[in-house]
Amino acid sequence: MISEYIPTAQSFSLGVWAEVGSRHERPREHGAAHFLEHIVFRGTPTRSAKRIATELESLGAYLNAFTTKDHICLYVRALTRHFEKSLAVLADVAQNPLFAPRDLEKERAVILEEMRSLEDEPEEEVADLLDLSLFGAHPLAHPISGTPESVSAITREDLQAFHKRFFHPKNLVVAIAGNIDHNTACILAESLFARRTERFRKRSIIPPTIMPPQYQEITRAVQQAHIHWGIAFPELGDKDYYTLSIINMLFGDGMSSRLNQTIREKHSLAYTVYSAIGDMTDATTITLYAATEAKNRTKTEQLLRHEIDKLVNHAISKAEFQRAKEQLKSNIIIGLESLSGRMNMLAKSEFYLGRYESAEEKLAWIDSISLAETNTFAHERLGIEHWHTAVIVPED
């Protein structure tokens, strides 16, 4: 249990997190973590799917879940007075899914429809293609939702075994942000989460081997070329992580970023262009994305290369460096004004660091980074020769 007491709030954000994601799946289980995230809401021995939804939504609560490469999170946002009921429902859903055969087939159909909808979102598909280039045969390369073939092959017994392996109390973290007393929450959680007698053995994960740069291209019935470039780093220390975050901010995060100003504002080649940081247990990625008309693809890629070359070989100015620092600090602070943002930060700090990292610590790291260190990082680690490329192009 990890919580942050915010007495001025009138609500809370509650998450039950399991340290299991798509990277923990065995070869025949691809998509199992995401499937499990769906099926737990289909009912328990004491609550039907309809009751799970109405029991909380009748109180004005918001219930949802998500799966990443590292985690599954089941979460609720509600008013403070509904905390006990919310935790009781989440605890039941997390621990006691029925896996009724009829419900399993219904949810399988829903997931397959979700996959088909993603085929209409080339930005998502090209991101999966880039992961394949970055991580090769490693589980981090697998799409979180699996494939239609793998999801169609997952059985009830597969999901039951997967749930038993990973939804053990010793593999769960309850994270809370809001007007909830920590001791009260602990006592309630103790009463709701069963004490399992079998021994829990934490599964070791295989660190990724970063692949040499590759080029991946596929054709689809799309209107634009979707360009996605990226670099993956094995575990970064705090200083390098925040240095990369500053570079990402000035490079492609925001309207004043270099990519936006050059590709969108100056040359009008893309409506959507950005760079982003991706966090995983033992890897960090920086990626850039642009969508443009097929006839403008070559020009867009030339400009991307030019901006990378300029970042790597020409010193960042002091003014631009300070702007990026202030933007990054503002993003952190503004994000923590959301209870959901605070709850997410609590859980991720626990999983990734094994301790609570305060906003003040984050800001101190950012303040400690010098312009010289940032220029050196860009020069040594972001050269064009390090970037992987994934592209989706329109069919002829």
Quick description:
The protein is α+β, with helices and mostly antiparallel strands.
Question: How does this structure look, described?
Answer:
The chain is of the alpha+beta class. Helix content is about 45%, strand content about 20%. The protein is built from 15 helices and 10 strands. The chain has a 5-stranded mixed β-sheet, sandwiched between helices. The chain has a 5-stranded mixed β-sheet with strand order 6-10-7-9-8, with helices on both faces. A hairpin with a 4-residue loop joins β3 (about 60-65) and β4. The longest helix has 19 residues, at about 100-120. The N and C termini lie far apart (about 55 Å). The mean pLDDT is about 95.
Helix content: 40-55%
Largest sheet: 5 strands, mixed
Question: What is the overall number of helices?
Answer: 15
User: Low-confidence runs (pLDDT<50, min 5 residues)?
Assistant: none
- For the biggest β-sheet, the strand order reads 1-5-2-4-3
Q: Sketch the topology as an H/E string, one letter per element.
A: EEHHEEHHHHHEHEEHHEEHHHHHE
Please tell me what the overall shape is: globular
Average of pLDDT: 95
Query: End-to-end distance, in Å?
Result: 55 Å
Number of beta-strand segments: 10
What structural class should be given to the helix and strand makeup?
A: alpha+beta
Radius of gyration: 22 Å
The fraction of residues assigned to DSSP E strands is: 15-25%
